[in-house]
Amino acid sequence: MFVRLSAAIAALSLMSGAAMAQAAKPTDPQIAHIAYTAGVIDITAAKQAISKASNKDVKAFAQDMVRDHEAVNKQALDLVKKLNVTPQDNDTSKTLSKQASDKLAELAKLSGPAYDKAYVANEVAYHKAVNSALETQLIPSATNAELKGLLQTGLKIFQGHQQHAEHVAANLK
After folding, report:
1. 95, 14 in Cβ contact below 8 A?
2. Does residue 143 register a pLDDT over 50?
3. How much is the average pLDDT of 72-85?
4. Is the predicted pLDDT of residue 130 greater than 90, yes or no?
5. Counting Cβ atoms within 10 Å, is residue 26 exposed (0-12), middle (13-18) or buried (19+)?
6. Contacts of 29 (CB under 8 A, 6+ apart)
7. Do residues 31 and 155 touch, judged by C-beta distance below 8 A?
């Protein structure tokens, strides 16, 4: 059976609960890398959807994801450059990247309405996971006010993405 939940949920869950209690809270350079990586993952998935989706609403949603995540990632890159901070790769961002690659390969095997439904279901799950991580771990752990502000702005945008994905998913049934 096709697993619709994003593998990223597991990776982002590493940042909460017992795993987070055992590890030090992420630093601002690590947070910047996690947030940027999450954006790149969604851009890559959306670009795949633009080429594979059969439903016009799914394609339009994917185009919105590319536009919005590229804009937020540009702001993030501008901020780290301004602050002279080098984003730091870490276990969470590495796990996110690996699991996203696996998910893209899984989605690539699908086509037509099956692809559309799987992509949108993944987007709902992915945005839920990212939004939860932003709210409960990344924003509270950020020490730089500008980084925290960018994460809060991103959260508002990504909450809108989750609602949009839920709407598209409901119309695909």
Report:
1. yes
2. yes
3. 92
4. yes
5. buried
6. 80, 85, 86, 87, 88
7. no
- Measured CA to CA, the distance from residue 31 to residue 142 in angstroms comes to 7
pLDDT tens by residue, 8-50: 443 444 444 434 433 579 999 999 999 999 999 999 999 999 9
Rounded CA separation 152/130 (Å): 12
Half-sphere exposure in the Cβ direction for 15 (13 Å, CA)? 31
Q: Which two tokens stand for residue 110?
A: 């699908």
Residue 1 has pLDDT above 90, yes or no: no
| pTM (2 d.p.) | 0.86
**Alpha carbons 157 and 72: distance in angstroms, whole number:** 9
Tell me how far apart the alpha carbons of residues 156 and 148 are, in angstroms, rounded to a whole number: 13
Give the torsion through C-alpha atoms of 91, 154, 54, 100, to 10 deg. Answer: 0
For residue 137, what are its two tokens?
């771990």
Closest CA to 59 of 67, 68, 49, 69: 49
